[in-house]
Amino acid sequence: MRTILAHLEISPSLDSVLECARLVAERFAAYIEGYHMRPGQPDLIAAGADGFVAAAPDLVAGFEREARERAEQARRRFEAFRRRHGLPLPQEASPDRPSADWRVETASGQGAIGSYGRVFDLIVVGRPLADQVTPSMAALEAALFESGRPLLVAPPVPPKRLGERVVVAWNGSTETARTVAFAMPFLAAAASVAVLQVEDGMVPGPEAEDLATSLRRHGIAVEVRHVRRGGRGTGEAMLAETAALGGDLMVKGAYTQSRFRQMIFGGATSHILAHAELPVIMAN
To answer: Quick check: 150 and 177 in contact, CB under 8 A?
Structure first.
């Protein structure tokens, strides 16, 4: 985990996004790039009473001004964060120290983070909040489905620690297997690792003991925990049991069921994205 892309979206979770990125960078002597997507100029028009359609320069100017202000705010927040933690620019840093820089890119939509994120080891985004427009679910899903890279979903409140006690929320799926592979640097560096299996939340596939055996062959000490949902949803049970284990990082495959099905019926990923209070590594 030597390169980290942190989404500089002006939101209540921005401090947590930056702190999660910093904690990972400190652990792996990584480079953090703060990335702000500045929206391109929209096609704004105004229609007169006679049906004549003309450009709306005042609206365009207002949109441009707001976009510039948000980009400048993101830059100031990131630079203050960088200075506060003594993070040098990459050209000034030694190989064994974390470093940081930032980038603003004009983009036509949130999909840009999925494209640019392909050249990073990890993308850090904020967890969407029910009562806020940002952090953006569109940006999270673009990063998840378009980058081919793992996401670290930051909780609303900055964590005090990250990756000391890792809990793998195992359900036997391809998505979780892929996420575990991405998360191997975290598992190898953790003080302890637990594989959690919610008995009524599995798909056909290997059991938690099979994953634990594989991880032990990598020299990772693992404990296995089996729990039942007990009237809870699978995602609710995963979060509750992770908290009971003292986990400070969850590893969870995203959307074993389709996004559409989860929108209608709910699912573990949807619940975790709505309620997680700890950092979560996800991949699809």
So the answer is: no
